[in-house]
Amino acid sequence: MSTIWYFAYGSNMQTATLRGRRGIEPRRAMAARIPGWRLVFDKPPLVPIGESFANLTADPRGEVLGVLYQLGVTDLEHVELTEGVRIGNYDRLEVEARPLAEPGDAVVAVTLASHRREASLVPSTRYMALLIDGAIEHGLPEAYVGWLRTVPARAESDEAARLRALLDEAMRRPA
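-> structure tokens emitted (175 positions)
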């Protein structure tokens, strides 16, 4: 089966999100970074629920830490489907990812970023907990985890809580 590298920097860093919410079993996972980018929290949801999600913005002096997953091509297609790439919610980008354990061995990976931005929104504490859990799970540096803990966040909106069960079911891969 053909595979592809996927760089996750948001809630998909948490393996349970890929396995549980999307039904994807990564072949490999490792802590990694992508130079030339900065992590921001300005991505509005498709349905207005008053909170934002992680996003990337180009920054020649920046770098984003995350998880590099080796996925089957059909697994990545499912990620893109459930993240709304086909409807313009995210755009597919090719990036150079460098595993933290093997800094010299860069790979070309796919990641997702959005041109949709809303600087007035902040993420929910529930969403940030997913990022922090994923960062800890994959051994991202303590300083990075500490920085994630400082990102301003708000309690999850009632609208988001009501929609989550529906979205989780819609994102799950059919058996």
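The first helix runs from residue 15 to 21.
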